[in-house]
Amino acid sequence: MSRRYVTLDVFTDRIFGGNPLAVVLDAQSLTTAQMQSIAAEFNYSETSFVLPARDPGHTAHVRIFTPRTEVPFAGHPNVGTAVAIAREMESAGRTCPQELVFEEAAGLVPLSLLREGGAIVGAELAAPQSLTVGPPVPVRDAAECLSLVSDEVKIDVHPPRIVSVGLPFLAVELRTREALRRSKPVLAVHERVLPPAGTDSVFAYVRGAAGGELQARMYSPLDAIVEDPATGSATAATIAMLASIGAHGAAGGARAEDHGNADLTWRIEQGVDLGRPSLLLGRTSMRGGQLRSVHIAGRAVTVMRGELPLLPS
């Protein structure tokens, strides 16, 4: 049987912006090797595969592959897959629920659809795991991963360190927007620094003039992703960390004295220096000094539809 697929640009409201995603809608009976080959053929940062849910109370079982490997969770594949599934349901005349739940390797991922004038324009996900924060990575190593020098890494809020809400990243705050613009990955340094730290990706960012505003870039050449235009999983982990330490304020501003109970909003721009501007909208909720939830929302636009032929076993 042929397999239907759709591609979308995610975390954008216009075609050829944001982060491209391929969604294979009929993934039943595909082997892991076939899924990996399809993801390598699309060569997007991720390709998602939709399978029947194991629990009938859930929407779908979703597997996510980069060009080289399967990952337990990722941001833009969840947003894009939710939009693709919902639009397919509506085009078939079926009623689409407002809330979806995907089964993934990292756990259950709840999603809410975003609508305007009744039309589905995007989705918001809740991270499947609690925030985990790893030990610091030496500043010099983090800087060299980005082709920068140590003085360009900002450490007064947090040192470079591994953060995760389902997929680990090295989060590095930079001092200036100019340093972020000049940053680029160095494969040999990534090979030396990142696997021992427990990741294969670097999420570099600067904070803006207003509280909760970030500009970011993400590099993962070890996973055949030189630069990702929009990275919801890294964004979610980073804002979760910043919320948990009370660092929602503008760059250079003081930390909040009391962040024990706070519902915060975040605006993250990514992909600008890559020529694929992306907008990610975040929410974090703190209660009693504990991070209760982190959400990432964004829009998605459909780009292409097609079919994959019968694949060799």
General description of the model:
- The protein is an alpha+beta fold and 313 residues long.
- It folds into two domains: 133 residues, Diaminopimelate Epimerase, Chain A, domain 1; 165 residues, Roll (Diaminopimelate Epimerase, Chain A, domain 1).
- Helix content is 21%, strand content 39%.
- It has six helices and 17 strands.
- The chain has an eight-stranded mixed β-barrel with strand order 1-2-3-4-6-7-8-17.
- A hairpin with a 7-residue loop joins strand 15 and strand 16.
- The two termini are 12 Å apart.
- About 2% of the residues have low confidence.
List the helices and strands and how they pair.
Elements: E1 3-10, E2 19-24, H1 32-42, E3 47-51, E4 60-65, E5 70-71, H2 75-91, E6 99-104, E7 107-116, E8 119-126, E9 132-136, H3 139-145, E10 161-164, E11 169-173, H4 177-182, H5 187-197, E12 202-207, E13 213-220, E14 225-228, H6 232-244, E15 262-270, E16 278-287, E17 290-308
Parallel strand pairs: 2-3, 4-6, 11-12, 13-15
Antiparallel strand pairs: 1-2, 1-17, 3-4, 4-5, 6-7, 7-8, 8-17, 9-10, 10-11, 12-13, 13-14, 15-16, 16-17
